[in-house]
Design a protein that fits this description.
The structure is a homodimer.
Chain A lengths: L1 E5 L7 H6 L4 E3 L13 E7 L4 H14 L4 E6 L4 H9 L4 E4 L4 H12 L7 H14 L16 H12 L3 H8 L3 H15 L4 H9 L3
Parallel strand pairs in A: 1-2, 1-3, 3-4, 4-5
Helix pairs in contact in A: 6-8, 6-9, 7-8
The first copy, chain A, binds a DNA duplex through helix 6 and helix 8.
DNA sequence: AAAAACATTGGTCTGAAGGACAATACAGGT
DNA sequence: ACCTGTATTGTCCTTCAGACCAATGTTTTT
């Protein structure tokens, strides 16, 4: 896993260099050189007056590197900026002058699929979200309203990943009947197969 | 770093045992035996009807072990419960039947100070908290981090509903190779078939 | 009552999916 | 140099999915 620091300071910051001596340091994002598949960690050094640059750079990275992990290190961290950055898909946000040890920890965390943020930010996220979490009554997909009752039952089970045989057993009908209902469901919903059906019913699209 | 599983099932779950063969498994929280300084990871197995138990246990752990990390593994994960658990200080929340590798990833993440949660939950946290209108930065599934680059590419296309033939064409490899990568992906993620893979990569857990 | 929609089941057939055996080439680390 | 992991491709085989050909009984609507 490769590290690329993007900072206006030539030579980066002391902590960065110490943490990742072999990392690349650049002042601007270079065009992709075909390493589209490798996972790269981008460390963006954020100045207070470069909101626009941050947005632009993050989007560029996401376009060019599908597997990239993006970290923002801010000179003056604040929660609003952190929220904004994470809404763009950044997986870690911290102080630019974090010690090398912390930077290494961050890398370990994000390279294993985790998210890194300060305890205060996390707390705030939770607080705000918890209060609004109540009204997420599970909305049944609108697609299901297009199906008959029996088709609904079969489609829901299929969308969970059950096989025709399993569906037949739990609904106490023949596998042949399951197929009939599924075929009808595909027809009505315009799904190509059970996988598309599952995607339709699980995503609210 | 010590692991303690607390589950009503004697012997825990298969995935847990595989991930941490040397962990302690208990059905209730035992009183503290002076290990106040060591960091312990508590894995709480959550049944749908044990909200009260969860709250009580978390608070007990936090009182007795100042350095503890608490993970909740839910039989039926849902965002409301996840938010609630994390508001109590839980640092990871996932499906109880997560494959062993995912569990190990979670441990790596949290033991380095990170937070582990499903992409949907994170997205929702950000969406709700952020004042800025969301662009949906495509959060790569945690599961994907278990796959090699090539497997990732294949798995992502398969999760969109493409056939092996279609995937082979756009990646410019043989259909046989697609199958090989997919089989490897199933193995790594513990998926039964491409539909389960799709559910894993598109949805929660 | 007649018509339409729904629920159920049958058989056949084609193609896709995925496992069970492989083999080869290449990169990186010990 | 050797071993491990990754990427690639091969053949054979079994199972499953879904389309297409039906039919019959029940329920609902017109």
């Amino acid at each position: 896993m490769q590290d690329i620091f993007i900072s206006p300071l030539s030579g980066g910051l002391a902590g960065w260099v110490e943490a990742f001596p072999h990392a690349k340091i650049a002042d601007i994002l270079k065009p992709n050189k075909s390493h589209a598949s490798e996972t790269i960690v981008f460390w963006l050094h954020m100045n207070a007056d470069r909101q626009e640059w941050l947005t632009k750079t993050i989007k560029q990275i996401q376009q060019q590197y599908t597997q990239a992990k993006i970290v923002v290190l801010a000179n003056s961290p604040n929660q609003a900026e952190a929220l904004y950055a994470m809404s763009l898909g950044v997986v870690a946000y911290s102080h630019a002058y974090s010690p090398a040890q912390v930077l290494r920890e961050m890398k370990t965390v994000i390279s294993h699929g985790g998210v890194w943020m300060g305890p205060d930010l996390l707390k705030r996220l939770i607080e705000v979200s918890s209060t609004l979490a109540g009204n997420q009554a599970e909305q049944v997909s609108q697609h299901l309203s297009l199906l008959t009752n029996r088709e609904k039952q079969v489609a829901i089970e299929a969308a969970k990943g059950l096989s025709n045989k399993e569906i037949a057993r739990i609904l106490d009908i023949t596998e042949r009947t399951v197929k009939a209902h599924l075929s009808a469901s595909f027809e009505r919903l315009g799904a190509k197969d059970r996988l598309h059906l599952a995607l339709m019913l699980n995503n609210k699209s």
